[in-house]
Amino acid sequence: MRLLLCFSLGFLLLSPGLAFCGAPSDTGARQITREEARALLNKALEGSAMTKLPAFKLTESTSDGNSRWYLFRGTWAGAPNGSYIIDTWAIDKRTGEVWEAAVCRELYFPALEDMQDDIHKKIGLSVEDYLRIRVDGPLCDPVPTN
Q: Containing domain of residue 110, as a range?
């Protein structure tokens, strides 16, 4: 019995993915919240002409809850006989990167990067872990290997 207990405890200690019966965490950092994601997007859009359009608003698109991304859609009052959707942005729940989803373009500039750095510190994401888990946006095509 004692040998079995020691083996079981040793197995659990050496298997972090099994501890606490949760999904494996490869960084130990928590994911960013919806509020943090919205704040990052607001910072990314600061000063943009689109935010001055009549009735501009950001709405979160529905997701399955398992997605790596928070998705937001920008809309406005719309032109006669035109679209009211401006763009869709994706914010990585693990890194806080902000992407223009449809064109696979990451948004970055000093004020946004400072805010992302602050969030990384707050959630416990090291630079090494960030570089290891970072991925391109959700609609980016993989680079062909041939």
A: 29-133
